[in-house]
Write a structure and sequence with these properties.
Helices cover 36% and strands 17% of the residues. It is α/β, with parallel strands linked by helices. It folds into three domains: 135 residues, Barwin-like endoglucanases (Beta Barrel); 295 residues, Rossmann fold (3-Layer(aba) Sandwich); 214 residues, Dimethylsulfoxide Reductase, domain 2 (3-Layer(aba) Sandwich). It has a six-stranded mixed sheet with strand order 5-4-17-16-15-6, with helices on both faces. The protein has a six-stranded mixed sheet with strand order 28-30-29-32-24-31. Helix 1 crosses helix 2. One ligand MGD binds next to helix 10, helix 19, strand 24 and strand 25.
Length: 766
């Protein structure tokens, strides 16, 4: 990196802006991935961990939900997986004196990065009402404090139970069982902020909110379109699948406002040629689309498909598939005929030639996969955009045949499994019936609070107790200041966590921290060592076994914490065998096998090498369990994001060295950033147009009708080849700018990728 600028005035005095990379991974990445592991952990623990990662009989990497290929390499992990494992399995623990020396207010002054560096939590802590500090508390006392509080509420709906997506299937199942037996459906989760739009759009149109492909489909595809996703950083092992697909002749297209290194060129660290050579050029076409322009691009492409069909009737659409399996083609054709091409160009910022080429590539391919992540789900019109994505695939029968399909790429390693297990504020009556029958109780039916409703409930006083199974809710949710004020209004907050984060410092009157085992650690219960299971992005379920000794003796597993909390709260009500669940996780799996479809022989199937794949109507038999019993081609009105003059559309995204709100380092190597995070990436022409200069400090104001501006001060402008009018800054710092009421239509996901902002030269402050 050749430093172009160094900053002295910002929050990060050593900030360096260098050159961005145009390739991802390769030798530097592998060295970087091993480095930190070796430093703290010692060679033995490191070897135990890295050799067990993503291997049969080992543990599932918690860095993302990317699936494991059947033929795994001996090093089936990536740089960022190694970071996630190192971060969790570090033998460094929060010193006992930390809580005595630092009040909760002091903790507010410690950054997420530094909180993480303190190491693993080892004993339960309690903050009494009015106290300034946390003090140690015994496990039984902690459980009875929470149980008494819950039982003293005037309605179970006054409590809410958040889940972050690392929670394994068995834990998730007992957690939702406890929450429903307690009497509420208030089960918000990180999915509400993540792939909720996917669930809504796919649920309505194809009957299942999950991927319609299996891992092997990547190798059989002619064309893979990667939209709104940065795999080089967030799903690095996906690059290997793309490289393999490319070798088999597939074309790859990236659609993204940013030129993301991994999508452009890739050096496979597991191959000699990747270490020494130039790597593989991945993307055959790269569309630097304007933020929020995807719906227009998809409609314009469908229009070209329909025009081609009109020019050569019977030869372009998959008529056999459409007549047997789809509804809505006529209405769609009529609607798309009226598409305003000028609006498309405006919305996408692309040229007609680029869109024509994209459509021609789509038409030339027999088997097309489209993958996507947060660039598509965290927009106001996300649900409609994803419905258009399904429309485009359906027109040529690209669902339910080999090498083709719709593939949301999930984030948290078990976020999809948690939903399958019932972590959702609006589970179906069928699921609730089966759950009630299995445990002889009547689960509540009224839909519960999702993540935004949880903030609103805390804010208005309707919700008084907040319990989190993992995660960092106040940092992850939008509108940080509003969310934090709401959380402080709670009567009790409870965090079940491996490590400290901001959510342990922004708490209710009473607060508890319950430290837990991580996925890498051996989990021994009365009947011996236990294992858990997870579901990946392509619906494959497999076991995950902890492989290293727990960092501290007093830690409880998540299952133990949830079941003991349930026992303390509910006692023998309904006769549920909480104690048995903790002793033997097979008992939990037996219950799951009778409640959750696809898990009928769970205990056997999960013990098979590699696990098992859940049934999936669209993928397996072109069965679409929708309102009409057919895949629905839908009509959606194009509405593109208007950018007021002098404003930019800001997206908040991940650096290469973070996992969501966890910051591993202050670098973002592929984008050329070192030692700092207070940067805003802006197109050079926009910098000029706004009268700013590269490297200048600016204050960022987000504008929302009828509300005072939200602000993020003293950021450094970085000239960067993002699409015109579109800027980028890092999550979670940028969450202060996202208004609580700026949410995707029908999925209510915070609009983290399209914040209207104004930049002003930074005010001189004392
Ligand atoms: N190392 C690492 N791995 C992770 C995570 C992590 O934080 N670190 N997080 C995990 C989680 S929970 C998730 S959900 C996933 C997230 O994985 P990603 O979705 O890849 O994460 P983001 O960094 O939010 O990147 C969003 C991408 O969408 C692009 N984008 C933004 N707006 C638009 C738009 O309007 N249109 C299009 N086409 N593209 C757009 C951005 O430029 C960026 O490349 O990763 C998972 N894996
Ligand atoms: N502006 C903006 N906001 C966003 C996003 C964005 O792109 N932009 N992305 C959204 C997305 S996609 C997501 S998924 C959410 C993420 O929201 P969350 O899932 O709530 O956040 P994380 O940062 O993943 O949570 C990290 C914390 O989880 C705890 N933890 C880690 N491992 C374990 C474990 O094994 N067990 C337990 N019990 N705890 C553990 C640790 O204490 C750690 O500090 O954020 C969302 N917020
Ligand atoms: Mo996510």
């Amino acid at each position: 990196m050749t430093p172009r600028e160094t900053g002295e005035t910002g929050a990060y005095p050593d900030l360096e802006i260098g050159h961005r990379e145009t390739w991802a991974v390769g030798m530097p990445a592998i060295l970087k991935s091993m480095g930190p592991a070796l430093k703290d952990m010692g060679p033995l623990r490191t070897a135990q961990l890295l050799s067990a990662m993503n291997q049969k009989g080992g543990f599932d990497c918690m860095s993302c939900a990317w699936p494991d290929p059947d033929h795994r390499s001996p090093a089936e992990f990536c740089e960022n997986g190694a970071k996630a494992v190192t971060w969790e399995a570090t033998p460094v623990t929060v010193p006992a004196r930390f809580f005595a020396e630092n009040s909760i207010d002091d903790m507010l002054g410690i950054s997420e990065y530094e909180l993480g560096l303190l190491g693993r939590l080892t004993e339960p802590m309690y903050r009494a009402k009015g106290a300034s500090h946390y003090v140690p508390v015994s496990w039984p006392a902690a459980f009875s404090l929470i149980a008494d509080k819950l039982n003293g509420l005037s309605s179970p709906d006054e409590a809410t139970f958040y889940t972050s997506g690392r929670t394994a299937n068995e834990t998730a199942f007992v957690y939702q069982l406890f929450v429903r037996a307690f009497g509420t459906n208030n089960l918000p989760d990180c999915s509400n902020m993540c792939h909720e739009s996917t669930g809504v759009a796919l649920g309505e149109t194809i009957g299942v909110g999950k991927s319609t492909i299996a891992y092997d489909d990547f190798g059989k595809s002619d064309l893979i379109i990667v939209m709104g996703q940065n795999p080089g950083t967030n799903h690095p092992r996906m690059l290997t699948a793309l490289e393999d697909a490319k070798r088999n002749g597939a074309t790859i297209i990236g659609v993204n406002p940013l030129p993301e290194a991994g999508l452009i060129r890739y050096k496979n660290p597991q191959k000699v040629r990747g270490i020494i050579g130039r790597g593989t050029e991945l993307a055959d076409q790269y569309l630097q689309i304007r933020s929020g322009g995807d719906m227009a691009l998809l409609q314009a492409t469908s229009r070209r498909v329909l025009d081609a069909e009109a020019a050569a009737p019977g030869t372009v659409l998959d008529h056999a598939f459409i007549s047997e399996h789809c509804s809505g083609l006529e209405e769609f054709t009529a609607h798309i005929a009226g598409l305003d091409e000028a609006a498309v160009l405006e919305a996408t910022g692309l040229t007609t030639a680029e869109i024509d080429e994209f459509a021609a590539r789509y038409l030339a391919a027999d088997r097309v996969i489209i993958t996507w992540a947060m660039g598509l789900t965290q927009q106001k019109k996300s649900v409609d955009t994803l419905k258009e994505l399904i429309n485009l695939l359906l027109l040529r029968g690209n669902i339910g045949k080999p090498g083709a399909g719709a593939s949301p790429i999930r984030g948290h390693s078990n976020v999809q499994g948690d939903r399958t297990m019932g972590i959702w504020e609006q589970m179906s009556d069928k699921f609730l019936d089966d759950l009630g029958r299995e445990f002889a109780f009547e689960p509540p039916r009224e839909h519960g609070a999702d993540s935004l409703a949880t903030v609103e409930g805390l804010r208005g006083g309707a919700i008084k107790v907040f319990v989190a199974l993992g995660g960092n809710f106040v940092s992850a949710i939008s509108d940080t200041a509003v969310a934090e004020a709401a959380m402080r209004g709670a009567e009790m907050t409870v965090q079940i966590s491996t490590k400290l984060n901001r959510s342990h410092a922004v708490v209710g009157d009473e607060a508890l921290i319950l430290p837990t085992l991580g996925r890498t650690e051996i989990d021994v219960q009365a009947t011996g060592a236990q294992f858990l299971s997870v579901e990946d992005s392509v619906c494959a379920v497999h076991a995950t076994h902890g492989r290293v000794a727990p960092v501290a003796p007093g830690l409880l597993s998540e299952v133990a914490i949830v079941t003991r909390l349930a026992q303390a709260t509910l006692g023998d009500k309904y006769g549920i065998d909480w104690v048995g669940f903790e002793r033997d996780y097979n008992i939990i799996r037996d219950h799951i096998s009778r409640v959750v479809p696809g898990f009928e022989s769970f205990n056997e199937d999960v013990r098979r090498k590699g696990g098992f794949i859940l049934p999936n109507g669209p993928r397996d038999e072109r069965r679409f369990d929708t309102a009409t019993g057919k895949a629905m081609i839908t009509v959606n009105d194009l509405e593109h994001l208007e950018r007021p003059p002098g404003r930019l559309i800001l997206q908040s995204m991940r650096s290469h060295d973070q996992f969501n709100t966890t910051i591993y380092s202050l670098n973002d190597r592929y984008r050329g950033i070192k030692n700092g995070r207070d940067v805003i990436f802006v197109n050079p022409d926009d910098i000029t147009e706004l009268g700013l200069s590269d490297g200048q400090r600016v204050d960022i104001f987000s504008e929302w009708p009828g509300e005072p501006d939200r602000e993020l001060l003293g950021y450094r402008v970085v000239s960067y080849p993002t699409a015109r009018g579109c800027a980028a800054a890092y999550y979670p710092e940028a969450n202060v700018l996202v208004p609580l009421s700026s949410a995707a239509l029908s999925s209510k996901t915070p609009v983290s990728k399209a914040i209207i902002v104004r930049l002003e030269p930074a005010a001189v402050r004392a």
